[in-house]
Design a protein that fits this description.
Number of domains: 2
Distance between the termini: 29 Å
Number of helices: 9
Largest sheet: 7 strands, mixed
CATH superfamily of the largest domain: Type I PLP-dependent aspartate aminotransferase-like (Major domain)
Bound molecules: pyridoxal-5'-phosphate
Strand order of the largest sheet: 2-10-9-8-5-3-4
Number of strands: 14
CATH topology of the largest domain: Aspartate Aminotransferase, domain 2
Helix content: 25-40%
CATH class of the largest domain: Alpha Beta
Low-confidence stretches: none
Length: 356
Amino acid sequence: MKKHIFNAGPCKLPRIVLENTSKAILDLEKCGLSIMEVSHRSKEFQAVIDEAMDLFKELLNIPDNYSVLFLGGGASTQFCMIPYNLLNKKAAYINTGAWSTKAIKEAKLFGEVDVIASSEDKGFTYVPKEYNIPADADYLHITSNNTIKGTELKYDIDCNIPLIADMSSDIMSRPVDVSKYDIIYGGCQKNIGPAGVTFVVIKDGILGKVDRAIPTMLNYETHIKKGSMFNTPPCSAIFTVKETLKWIKSLGGVKEMEKRAIEKSDMIYNAIDNSKMFVGTVAKEDRSRMNICFVLKDEYKEKEADFLKFTAERNIVGIKGHRSVGGFRASNYNACEMEDVEALVKAMKDFEVKYA
Ligand SMILES: *Cc1c(COP(=O)(O)O)cnc(C)c1O
């Protein structure tokens, strides 16, 4: 039975990507070895990682003076690698949720952290827009999409110091002006692949400015020099990322992903806004196209478990809100289809007919 998958991560992947991955698990490009068996030094795997990097650059229109890395350790390891490599004295952070908070915690191990804006005062339900970026900070770190609370910065900000963005959960969902950033990073498992691989887009010439010694594996220089193959990379995860990027390209690239994200998220937000029972949880202008959070109005609160059961019977999975938030969260990543969204919206309407 086909499931309508709204999981926040690991995400739903396109069917064709799963099919091509399963073929490569049995036999990579008819070389007689599985993607899980092939040497990462083989020409077959080199072709896979080269294609993944080239597609990444092409889809995001990345200028020539940037490298694309595929690393292990998750976006969470980047929370420490960034300050390890770049924080000399002071860094600026904008705190828009649980992931930014974790990034800030790591940065504090390496120097002064100036949290120049935070939406914590209102439970991270909006994206702060008023702040001064200190000219003497080594960089500004932002989280473009807040996966847990469902807010998103849907445009590229101007910044007079190096800008670093955690784009784990909205990468490849809209065109990005990469030239405005020094680093863009994220876990691939939210929007472009399976768990186990992290992407890092890093500008040339930004390293080597801190005084501390950096462990080899945590030094970006190591991975840039070795083309992400200093050690064994997560080969099969990279293969699936490559297939996902091919799929995005075949549909028309990130511009098309953005169009679809807008259409699908509008449909769910309209259903929420026109509902007697459900209500959104964040400022409308900052609503995420990727993670759509909503709750039952107070008078219907005790129906939460009923709605989860009602949707589960319709093969809708992954809409339980994050354990720290409650309510519901529908993750509308690239592979989420219009028919998934239609099934969810219909369930919301039918539920209302039954209970409101
Ligand atoms: C999921 C997520 C992370 C953590 O990613 P891991 O790969 O699990 O370490 C970091 N930032 C954001 C915005 C996320 O959504």
